[in-house]
Amino acid sequence: QLQPVESGGGKVKPGGSLRLSCAASGGTFDSYTIGWFRQAPGKEREGLACIGVNDDRTYYADSVKGRFTISRDNAQNTAYFEMNTLKPEDTGLYLCAVARFTKAETMCQLGMGFRGQGTQVTVAS
Q1: Which of 99, 123, 122 is nearest to 36 (CA)?
Q2: In angstroms, how far is CA 9 from the centroid of its own chain?
Q3: Whole-angstrom Cα distance, residue 13 to residue 24?
Q4: What are the phi and psi torsion angles at 34 (to 5°)?
Q5: How would DSSP label each residue in 18-45?
Q6: Predicted confidence (pLDDT) at residue 56 exceeds the cutoff of 80
Q7: CB 114 within 8 A of CB 98
Q8: Strand partners, 19
Q9: DSSP state, residue 15
Q10: What would the mean pLDDT of 59-68 be, rounded to a whole number?
Q11: I need a labelling partner for 9 at 20 to 30 A (CA). Which of 36, 69, 70, 105 fits?
């Protein structure tokens, strides 16, 4: 089973940017769909962005479309989440998830996959 480990979180002011990383080991990285999810206090976990095994398909939630970008580097067994124009409502625990034989849209919409421990993102002035 591929094990994802997130990093790159922190505190940033509104309008700022962060880049999250998801380093994975223990499996064949390029055979897994990768997704980023957010768990905010008092809210349900939300699938923000997911990417297919060959970068051929990506899915973005409306809340982040146009601001956030998911990408992957199969040679480095790492996925990334570039977050721009951050808003206070983007605050939460960001989790990377991995899943096999799953389409990106399905993974994000149904919340599928094995998740890491997460990295905290706080957007506040």
Answers
A1: 99
A2: 11
A3: 29
A4: -115, 140
A5: EEEEEEEESS-GGGEEEEEEEE-TTS--
A6: no
A7: yes
A8: 82
A9: T
A10: 97
A11: 105
**Residue 1 vs residues 12, 26, 49, 106, 120: alpha-carbon distances, Å:** 33, 6, 21, 20, 24
Let me know: does 120 contact 8? Beta carbons within 8 Å.
no
| Euclidean distance between CA atoms 52 and 49, whole angstroms | 10
Determine the 3-state secondary structure of 11 from DSSP: strand
Residues 6 or more apart in contact with residue 29 via CB below 8 angstroms: 2, 74, 77
Helix (H) or strand (E) holding 108: helix 104-110
Residue 40, both tokens:
């905010």
If pLDDT is split at 50, 70 and 90, which confidence band does 54 have?
Answer: confident
Q: What is the pLDDT of residues 8-28, one digit of tens each?
A: 999 999 999 999 999 999 989
Going by their DSSP bridges, the two strands 68-73 and 58-60 should be labelled as unpaired
Of 59, 38, 42, which is closest to residue 102 (Cα–Cα)? Answer: 59
**Entry field: residues in the chain:** 125
Q: Virtual CA dihedral for 39, 12, 52, 43, nearest 10 degrees?
A: 20
